[in-house]
Structure to design on (613 residues):
């Protein structure tokens, strides 16, 4: 989802600056074995967006999405991660009801009733390999923060705040990306906004 | 859990048991055969989303693929439904399995949210309960009238049977079953947790889908003792025959049909255009209407044989009538959401607002792109000047007091 937002929003230089090189992507998010154009509905989350856009290329937003995402398959900005079997099993566990019940026991405020395979897989890899998890899925973010409090997790708005705080982007530009492009054009589902206070930018 | 070195062997074993070769699986998943081989030789590991697709294709669950013991200790409650499939119908089995996976996850989501699930259902009227399925087609006319009366439908056409069934608590999904599965019109399943569930082949015209829905309603009300039925055109099973006759009478009430024919300029059907003019009153296919006219003795055998040779689409176009009933909808927007009834989509929105679901997990649950869910959640577009003009042309709405007074009187 975060990856799709940056690609669809034509913000690859910003993504590259934030990653400091490449972003690692798991197969349920973006699978190098599936290549557009697609004849049938593919498996990975990113590709399913391409397939849906392919169905109505007369609409500019769908044509743009299909074009930008198809081009991204060739981009060196992303690196596919091959899962290990224990990561697959951890991903399966994170998407299960048992994991959610466990989280509810630790924190009764935990609300999520479902976690997608793609987000669970991303989290499993980040937890296992000590990588920072970039996700804007409320379910997996709260699940990981509850079950693995030491695991670093960054949401989309916080990534933009980081970009401003690290001098990669000015506040107005970040605000424009978040509000006009992500929320306005790409319909990002988010209740938070970028705030600047005391020389620091954060999300609220 | 399966030990690391055994996952590949397990995938191979389950694939072979399903009667598939690696090429079939690669084609079905849209990837090269070699990738399947890598997975089975433990050189690579599939992603979780791919494992879900494999489970659908092999007629099992991801838990069972990862854990051999999970399969041997738990029975698949849906196995009975697969009896209606031929061994070589792998794609169809995968489509059905994906539908059943959605139903199971939907049930789990509702249950986890504290909602009471109906479980396997029985008909709402005690008189329709029966120890055995009703298969006597001679009773279909009377039972169709009783069902209409029970649901207060009257004698008119039901404009949108999916919406009606949704309101009546039947979960209906319209699923594209892809080419090669054209003969399969629908599936009825009395789900162990959700109760009555219906799948309709979305590749058929809306008129045919309307008939399928009525046909599956007959199964739900009068064949509920059977866990599930896969329905194909031309099936000679007595239950299928009964459901066909029921659907005809349910959708086209005999008295209403005769009344409309009486009102035609000549008081009878004189040509094929008369049939095309009657069709919008019932919102069913031209073929079904011809069949019902013949069954009610309102056209002759000769007329039936002649009229069925004409293209209904061409007749409707010539008369300037609505042609939607004859055309397969090729585009559903937002992508994929057309498969779900309004009650499910409303619930999805509610769950996202309550943070029980994220847009991503909602998309995964429905099997649609995330972008479709984002469109569902987006604020409705502003009314166009044309929309606004219509309100200006309407008389001023009554004040609440006057409206209340009218209701009281």
């Amino acid at each position: 989802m975060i990856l799709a937002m940056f690609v669809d929003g034509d913000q690859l230089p910003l993504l590259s600056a934030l990653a400091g090189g490449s972003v690692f992507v798991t197969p349920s998010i973006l699978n190098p074995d599936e290549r557009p154009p697609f004849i049938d509905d593919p498996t990975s989350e990113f590709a399913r967006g391409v397939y849906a856009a392919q169905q109505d290329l007369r609409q500019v937003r769908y044509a743009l999405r299909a074009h930008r995402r198809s081009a991204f398959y060739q981009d060196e900005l992303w690196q596919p991660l091959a899962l290990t079997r224990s990561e697959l099993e951890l991903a399966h566990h994170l998407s299960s009801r048992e994991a959610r019940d466990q989280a509810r026991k630790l924190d009764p405020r935990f609300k999520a009733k479902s976690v997608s395979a793609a987000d669970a897989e991303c989290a499993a890899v980040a937890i296992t390999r000590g990588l920072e998890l970039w996700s804007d899925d409320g379910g997996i973010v709260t699940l990981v923060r509850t079950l693995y409090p030491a695991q670093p997790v960054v949401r989309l708005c916080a990534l933009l705040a980081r970009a401003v705080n690290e001098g990669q982007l000015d506040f107005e530009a970040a605000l424009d990306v978040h509000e006009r492009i992500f929320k306005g054009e790409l319909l990002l589902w988010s209740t938070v906004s970028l705030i600047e206070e005391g020389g620091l930018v954060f999300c609220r | 859990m399966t030990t690391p070195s055994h996952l590949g062997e397990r995938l191979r074993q389950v694939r072979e048991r399903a009667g598939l070769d690696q090429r079939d699986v690669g084609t079905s998943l849209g990837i090269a055969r070699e990738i399947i081989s890598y997975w089975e030789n433990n050189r690579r590991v599939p992603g979780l989303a791919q494992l879900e697709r494999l489970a659908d294709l092999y007629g099992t669950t991801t838990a069972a693929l990862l854990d051999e013991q999970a399969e041997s200790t738990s029975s698949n409650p849906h196995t009975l439904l697969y009896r209606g499939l031929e061994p070589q119908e792998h794609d169809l089995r995968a489509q059905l399995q994906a539908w059943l996976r959605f139903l199971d996850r939907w049930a789990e989501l509702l249950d986890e949210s504290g909602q009471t699930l109906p479980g396997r259902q029985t008909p709402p009227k005690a008189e329709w309960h029966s120890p055995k399925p009703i298969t006597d087609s001679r009773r279909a006319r009377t039972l169709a009238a009783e069902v209409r009366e029970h649901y207060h439908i009257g004698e008119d056409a039901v404009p949108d049977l999916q919406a009606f069934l949704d309101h009546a608590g039947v979960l209906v999904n319209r699923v594209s079953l892809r080419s090669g599965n054209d003969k399969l019109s629908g599936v009825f399943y009395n789900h162990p947790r959700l109760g009555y569930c219906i799948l309709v082949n979305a590749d058929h015209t809306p008129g045919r889908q309307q008939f399928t829905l009525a046909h599956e309603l007959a199964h739900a009300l009068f064949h509920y003792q059977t866990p599930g039925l896969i329905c194909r055109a031309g099936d000679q099973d007595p239950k299928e025959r009964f459901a066909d006759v029921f659907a005809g009478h349910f959708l086209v009430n005999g008295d209403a049909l005769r009344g409309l024919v009486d009102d035609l300029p000549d008081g009878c059907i004189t040509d094929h255009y008369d049939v095309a003019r009657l069709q919008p009153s019932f919102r069913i296919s031209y073929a079904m209407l011809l069949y019902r006219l013949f069954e009610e003795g309102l056209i002759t055998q000769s007329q039936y044989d002649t009229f069925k040779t004409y293209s209904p689409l061409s007749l409707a176009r010539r008369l300037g009538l609505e042609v939607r009933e004859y055309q397969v909808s090729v585009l559903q927007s937002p992508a994929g959401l057309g498969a779900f009834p309004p009650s499910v989509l409303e619930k999805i929105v509610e769950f996202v607002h309550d943070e029980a679901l994220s847009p991503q997990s909602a998309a995964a649950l429905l099997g649609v792109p995330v972008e479709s869910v984002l469109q569902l959640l987006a604020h409705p577009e502003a009314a166009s000047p044309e929309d606004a003009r219509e309100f200006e042309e309407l008389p001023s709405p009554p004040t609440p007091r006057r409206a209340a007074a009218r209701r009281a009187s």
